[in-house]
Amino acid sequence: MLRNVALKSLRDIRRGFLWWSLGLAGFVALIVSVWPTVHSNPGLNKLAQDYPETLQAFLAFGGAVDYSSPAGYLGIELFSLMVPLLLLVAAIGTGAGSIAGEEERGTLELLLANPVSRTKVVLEKTLALVAELVGLGVVLWLALWIGALLANMDISAGHLAAATLSAVLLALAYGSIAVLIGAATGKRTVAIGLTAAAGVAAYLVNGLAPLVNGLDVPQKLSPFYHYAVGDPLRNGVSFTHLGVLVAIAVVATALAPWFFSRRDVAT
Amino acid sequence: MAEVIRAEQLTKSYGQHRGIVDVDFSVEAGEVFGYLGPNGAGKSTTIRLLLDLIRPTSGRLSVFGLDSRRDSVAIRKRLGYLPGDLRLYERMTGADLLGYFGNLRGLDGAESGERLAKRLDLDLDRQVKELSRGNRQKVGIVQAFMHEPDLLVLDEPTSGLDPLVQETFYELVAEATGRGGTVFLSSHVLSEVQHMADRVGLIREGRLDLVDSVENLRAAFTHVEATFAEPPPADAFAAIPGVRRVEQDGAVVRFAFEGEIDPLLKALARFHVKALDVREADLEDVFLARYRGEEPDAP
To answer: Which residues, 6+ apart, have CB-to-CB distance to A222 below 8 Å?
Structure first.
């Protein structure tokens, strides 16, 4: 695990990965275990559909609010908020820590005394972030798939994978932005704060757009829009929308070495 | 001899901190260059420029004839660095840390690191967070020396080391220069620099004040220690030509002077002298004489 910067960075987050995995899997298990009760109670769906539009817009993941189907239920309970929230927190933490964390702890100075370019360091650390998120995605998907089997949910493994992939790519987009801000400023709290603020703003813009005039255009710029709008639990992968999330990650990853290579490293 | 480091009009300005201004010097292959100065004078700034951790505001800096910025990776391949403020990965063992850096450097195996650790009596199986300051410093030394670099950049290398380990460290430096290696050493311990360095540069308030060989500097001054039968009056040796510094400790008076000794001898002869010791000045005498009580090495 010490062959290169990417593997060493993965090794550093191995404990965190274990806890995030347990948390995600546990949360999925909890939600799935409640499904039989929800399923046998049609009144709940009636109630939800009477909710104010604002609330429905935030509750649903992609399609309409629907407690009667597994796709609708998992969308509301997991993918509309909690799963992206958990993955984003993990991604932003890792991303902000990758350059800025080492810089604040002072270990970057010794790392950069080795014959590795700053570009290589930031790219390999981004690679570690990708690996972490893919790993968490696999854990999430396995938990969903096994849970759906056990709870007799009628939903395909492919659609569960599509929703998981959307969430992973959303987290990757924000994680890369956190890497970029950390690489550009060297300050972990700035990277976390700015990225989290951007995430909350994008989430709100996407949720409020159906109800507020003039948010149509900003909504299209929100990563959360592209994350959900394809309704992956019902329709599977939407390459166009996921492409936007990938593009955000690619642009942030391309900019990070540029900024990092052009500044002084803090003592 | 080939030039290993060359700084020309090297300037680094920070917002509010002082950096360095128009620093010119060169370091030849195989020599130990001592870089002296009070804290905050610009020693670490110069060193961090060598490592390309920070970038010059103006001027030029080349290492092995390569540009310190453009060719930094190629330079660092041949360089070993011990930072003044050493921060290691707390949760790694010494062996893991050396293994990691060895891999980044493309070293085969951990043999040279293990050999150095053994000489320094360092336990590589313990996590860094469990190590004392001295043992952490040993890890820093091993990672700087293990690839037998052509240039060693050492910032306050012996801080935290006990005297026995310091001796081993001096041996390592001597072996490195014996192989043709060059050492750029920053320190505020003048006796250590005198012991190790061939030439010194003194930086004060961001400007390089003087560069000369240790030999020349010491030859310029003579150290005289006179023991009197009874303490002479405090102002007895004021204004003697050539005397640059007087320090009285009861009946013992120490002088640093340059030039002919005659005026001082005449002045001493006015009192009952019990013993007289005349020898070449230490670097410390030189700097204290030169800067008249300003501490060039204030910690």
So the answer is: A202, A203, A205, A206, A209
Q: Which domain holds residue B255?
A: 221-290
- Specify if B295 maps to a domain: no
Answer yes or no: do B206 and B184 share one domain: yes
* pLDDT of B14 higher than 70: yes
Mutate to test the interface with A, among B85, B90, B104, B184 (most CBs of A within 10 A): B104
Predicted confidence (pLDDT) at residue B6 exceeds the cutoff of 80: yes
Q: Which one is predicted more confidently, A253 or B239?
A: A253
ipTM of the shown complex: 0.91
Instruction: Compute the C-alpha angle B230/B235/B238, nearest 5°.
Output: 120
Q: Inspect the interface and report whether the beta carbons of B104 and A265 lie closer than 8 Å.
A: no
Residues B167 and B85 in one domain: yes
According to the model, what pLDDT value does residue B292 have? 62
User: Which of A91-100, A206-215, B3-12, B69-78 has the lowest average pLDDT?
Assistant: A206-215
Domain extent for A114: 5-37+81-261
% of chain B at pLDDT higher than 90: 66
Closest CA to A210 of A68, A60, A50, A45: A60
Q: Is a pLDDT exceeding 60 seen at residue B297?
A: no
Q: Between A115, A117, A265, which is nearest B53 by CB?
A: A265
Distance, in angstroms, between B280 CA and closest chain A CA?
A: 39
Given B44, B76, B143, which is nearest A115 (Cβ)?
B76
| Contact between A58 and A75 (Cβ < 8 Å) | no
Which residues from chain B sit within 8 angstroms of residue A12, using beta carbons? 91
pTM reported for the whole predicted model: 0.90
How many structural domains compose chain B? 2
- The DSSP call for residue A263 is S
Question: What's the total number of domains in chain A?
Answer: 1
Mean pLDDT on B10-16: 87
Q: Are residues B280 and B147 in the same domain?
A: no
